[in-house]
Amino acid sequence: MDKVQIAIIGGGVIGLAIAAELSRKHQDIVLLEKETSFGQHTSSRNSEVIHAGIYYPHDSLKAKLCVAGNKLLYAFCQANNVPCAKLGKLVVAMNESEIPALEELEKKAKANGVLDVYLCNKGATHNLEPAVAAYAALFSPSTGIIDSHVLMKVLERRAEDNGVMLAYGAKVTAIDKITAGYKITLENKDEFLSEIVINSAGLWSDQVAAMAGIDIEKQKYKLHYCKGEYFSYAKPSFLQRLVYPVPEQDIKGLGIHAVIDLAGRLKFGPSADDVSKIDYRVDAVHREKFFQAIKDLYPQVKPEDLSPDQAGVRPKLQGPGESVRDFVIKEESELGLPGFIDLIGIESPGLTSCLAIGKYVADVVLFYK
Ligand SMILES: Cc1cc2nc3c(=O)[nH]c(=O)nc-3n(C[C@H](O)[C@H](O)[C@H](O)COP(=O)(O)OP(=O)(O)OC[C@H]3O[C@@H](n4cnc5c(N)ncnc54)[C@H](O)[C@@H]3O)c2cc1C
């Protein structure tokens, strides 16, 4: 039976970033992706925002990996010609009652090491974005946008140049612990052995953990799906920057925000609806809900300007109404699975954090070996 040193399950931005990073120092790596090419799921169905790291609890992996990932990603883009733009972002208050939330966010950002954020009064906000009917804003200059497809293409090429075997159309269906590692079985019945297994299977990462024998209910690894739809704006963008509402307390996403892509197109989203199945269709009936969510902030938008765009599904560790959970990135020796590394619940800011996650996982592998 063929044997490799490291098997990475999942060819989204996280699996690719891990492959690119690990292949700098390790050989005999295979990346297994069930689809016929990389990035067919969450990694190509998101806002493509390079977050600064202002929302996440201090000392959480989300905060640390986002703040580190932001800097790594801009540097990587520059060195590798990946299109990106540091547009900046405004988190806007609609009225005075939302100011304490902005101040809280500013404190949280600074505690996370995001020192460049600052509060803008009505006049300063108007100068930055005249078309937004805001009372005040928190400005984050280091938030930006990226072409996630080109990023993944560059990571894929880098991994391949470093000798990683890329196996597309390779769906993992079973993982069995053996004395020196794991036996991995694919849907086509091919089998091989791997000393280390990295589970970066995104929306299916709980199921992949279960294949290795982990009790996902007991470990609280079971994922809950939360769908985010986008509606695009038919006319030229009236914004220069990203504009977000003040996040609500029990928010499942960051609120329906205005996203600009690198071609300058404007869209609104993502919504946040708990779903039981993965279905990327956008329901045109939701146009009215989007319009109601944005109409006060952008008085020039008419319902007929909005058309269904893309949708993505968030892999959330917390169920509806539960408090926000951190990323799980863990080597599972404690569960009797040495060398099995789980990445579960890699929702936003996963894209921003991908290079930092790659380095984090490389350290976990180094420590394990
Ligand atoms: C609506 C939305 C907006 C977002 N916006 C942002 C943002 O603006 N900025 C940001 O930083 N983050 C954002 N995110 C989060 C970001 O997109 C994700 O964190 C990131 O893409 C996760 O990448 P991944 O590689 O873990 O998952 P995926 O891209 O889903 O990749 C996992 C891969 O594993 C494969 N796989 C699964 N099971 C198997 C198996 N058994 N065998 C083989 N292969 C398998 C799948 O086919 C898939 O390709 C957003 C997410 C959503 C849903």
Give a verbal description of the structure.
The protein has 369 residues and is α+β, with helices and mostly antiparallel strands. The protein has helices at residues 13-22, 61-80, 99-111, 122-128, 148-161, 205-211, 287-294, 350-368; strands at 2-9, 29-33, 49-50, 84-85, 89-93, 118-120, 136-140, 144-146, 165-168, 172-178, 181-186, 191-199, 224-233, 242-245, 257-260, 266-269, 273-275, 306-316, 328-332, 337-344. It folds into 3 domains: 2-45 and 149-221 and 324-368, FAD/NAD(P)-binding domain; 89-141, no CATH class; 224-316, D-Amino Acid Oxidase, subunit A, domain 2 (D-Amino Acid Oxidase, Chain A, domain 2). Strands 1, 2, 9, 10, 11, 12, 19 and 20 form an 8-stranded mixed β-sheet that branches. Strands 13, 15, 16, 17 and 18 form a 5-stranded antiparallel β-sheet that branches. Helix 2 packs across helix 8 (350-368). The longest helix is centred in the first third of the chain and has 20 residues, at 61-80. The mean pLDDT is 96. Bound molecules: flavin-adenine dinucleotide. Flavin-adenine dinucleotide (FAD) is lined by residues 9-15, 32-35, 39-43, 45-49, 51, 171-172, 200-204, 208, 228, 270, 312-314, 346-352. Residues 9-15, 32-35, 39-43, 45-49, 51, 171-172, 200-204, 208, 228, 270, 312-314, 346-352 line the site of flavin-adenine dinucleotide.
